[in-house]
Design brief:
The chain is of the alpha+beta class. It has four helices and four strands; from the N terminus they run H-E-E-H-E-H-E-H.
Length: 98
């Protein structure tokens, strides 16, 4: 199965900007490197279910793509969730790491 990152690389040159967030610009090649690096970190930790407490960002996307690459279940916990919503999500999802 082709990953989203692999599909995106087919339509763009490696040094073309893939993502922009404020002053931070990330090329397709850098995005691929970042995803591969974080994938290795996650693999070493033997994570099967990960929660991320954050709003949308480049780092959030890198985390999502790394989880997709490793078939890790990712539970997004947006910063606007109430404490009760976060507690419920974590108590019912058997998360390995946040």
């Amino acid at each position: 199965m082709t990953s989203l990152l692999d599909s995106l690389k087919k339509f763009s040159s490696p040094e073309k900007i893939a993502l922009a967030e404020g002053n931070r610009l990330v090329s397709f090649s850098q995005l691929s490197k970042d995803v591969n690096h974080f994938s290795r970190v996650l693999k070493k930790l033997s994570i099967s279910r990960l929660a991320i407490y954050a709003d949308n960002s480049i780092d959030w996307l890198i985390t999502d793509l790394a989880c997709q690459k490793l078939n890790i279940c990712l539970l997004p916990l947006p910063e606007y969730f109430s404490n009760e919503q976060i507690e419920h999500a974590l108590n019912t999802s058997a998360i390995d790491y946040i």
